[in-house]
Design brief:
This protein has 290 residues and is mainly α. It contains ten helices and no strands. It has helices at 2-30, 59-63, 77-97, 109-116, 124-153, 158-174, 180-188, 191-200, 207-247, 258-288.
Amino acid sequence: MVILLNVIMIMLAFIVGMCAFSFANVVIFRVPNEVSLKTHMYCESCSENLKFYETIPVFSYIFLKGRCKRCGASIRVREFVNELIGGFLSVFILLRFGVNPVLTDTFRMNEILDISLGQFNFSLATVVKLLGIITILAYVVMLDIITLVDNDTMIIYDGFNIVVFVISIISIFTMPGMGIVERIIGIFVVSVPMYIIQLVIPNAFGGGDIKYLAASGLLLGWKLELVGVLIGILLGGFYGMYLMAAKNYDRKTHFAFGPFLCIGVLTAMFIGQDIIELYSQYIAWMKSDY
């Protein structure tokens, strides 16, 4: 019975993730195109309103065979893939943080086994932990929105950063384990140097990137913020080198940096503490040789 309950929880997490990323798809399309989020779901080609069964995440795409039922226009496969990714990410969040939604803990497989073996109950403490999981999922949804919108438009809207900042404030109460001082330092540790660089070297970074990192720092804390940004810079650097080598772009070519920052931050959320500990062990090993 307990194992069945956990299977149901995982299935629910997958459904919630698909629905959350389905909403993200709506935001990703409508905000850049200045379409109200309150507008009824409609086909982008023929503008006809969609029926309920045509808006079910993942399943509607499969049922409709990737085409509008009325005009036959293709539905973007990216939205289908994004909803699937949302489902899997939601399950992974549950398994990674379900027992202890604290970012400063290392990744431990026994937490996944704890859920599978049925040590997850519906006590008051569990409700608090579920709020932490919801906070993490909400932040990951915003990462998805920022990643794809910035990729499409090279803009990170201020509204997105405001939402991220609100989620970060909520995380103070729903995601314990990190001191408020560490969180506050996280707001400035990367955003201020990037802003100074931006003043010295115009267009070195986008203003949206700087605001996003400031808003995220309150949730991540300064250590994970640094880890996420370093990963993002490395990924962006490799991509820049690829563009110069494969497409003959020069150093003045601009590309969206936000997606790489988001991937770096997402990585830091899941295994950032492990990276920090590995680095600490490496420094200790280097010192022991002298």
